[in-house]
Automatic annotation (TrEMBL):
PANTHER family: DNA UTILIZATION PROTEIN YHGH (PTHR47505:SF1). This is ComF family protein. InterPro entries: ComF/GntX_DNA_util-trans, DZR_2, PRTase-like, PRTase_dom. Residues 19-72 form the Double zinc ribbon domain. Residues 148-246 form the Phosphoribosyltransferase domain. Belongs to the ComF/GntX family.
Length: 247
């Protein structure tokens, strides 16, 4: 199943225009930006009312509730989530192109859209330190880069917040969360993260911003947030490019 998924992914990645600075990453039209104005308006102009904690779209735009039912009944360890978009077509193909197609030129685009999402929240409290969700050693060796860190680098510059690239480490390789049933994802990721001894002093009393490409069930981000709070972080905010809508 894992290999069929990768073959399917690579097939769709090949259909995307090359993500060059002179062409739109979605439609390929020539221009100065990596996303043309037409695609930006068509695919990124909707900003639904979201749960303040997990960023899941709430049922009604007029809903005054700040948190969804899931977060109220089973609060996650993280406090807030900001996303730039939902993980739906064709935006999902941009994420796959970065992750599996080595389209690193997309990372600054994701960072810029995350910056814009942050600026749309006037009451948002900025983190004091950024960190990226780490990859396991095996997957990092296979891929050659950590897509979350590639997004975090330009985002840190854009919002003028220091980035700690090695603040969090993955203690063991885990199965790909996307390949697992929802019920198994928590077990797969549990106790998979730790802080190096020399990083603990940078966490205590801080508001940590966690950068990632996609949020699905939130198990990975929840596990990291719990780890950070055990070491004294006072607040954890997720900064994620795309959020998979609940079915």
């Amino acid at each position: 199943m894992h290999y069929r998924f990768l073959d399917w992914t690579r097939h769709f990645i090949r259909q995307l225009p090359a993500a060059l600075p002179s062409s739109c990453a979605l439609c390929g039209v020539s221009g100065a930006d990596s996303l043309c104005q037409d695609c930006n308006s068509r695919f990124f102009s909707q900003h639904p009312h979201r749960c303040s904690q997990c960023a899941s779209p709430l049922a009604f735009a007029s809903d005054k509730a700040e948190r969804c039912g899931n977060c109220l009944s089973n609060p996650p360890a993280f406090d807030t989530t900001i996303v730039a978009s939902d993980y739906t077509a064709p935006i999902d193909q941009l994420v796959l192109a970065l992750k599996f197609g080595n389209r690193l030129a997309l990372a600054p685009l994701f960072a810029r859209m995350l910056r814009d999402a942050i600026l749309r929240e006037p009451a948002f409290t900025m983190p004091t330190l950024l960190a990226a969700v780490p990859l396991g050693e095996k997957r990092l060796a296979e891929r050659g880069f950590n897509q979350a860190l590639e997004i975090a680098k330009p985002l840190a510059r854009a919002i003028a917040i220091p980035l700690a690239p090695q603040l969090i480490e993955r203690t063991r390789d885990t199965l790909m969360q996307a390949m697992l049933p929802t019920a198994e994802r928590h077990r797969n990721i549990r106790h998979a993260f730790a802080l190096p001894a020399n990083a603990v002093k940078f966490v205590r009393g801080q508001h940590i911003g966690l950068v990632d490409d996609v949020l699905t069930t939130g198990e990975t981000l929840n596990e990291i947030a719990a780890t950070l709070k055990r070491h004294g972080a006072v607040r954890v905010t997720n900064l994620v490019f795309a959020r998979t809508p609940h079915k």
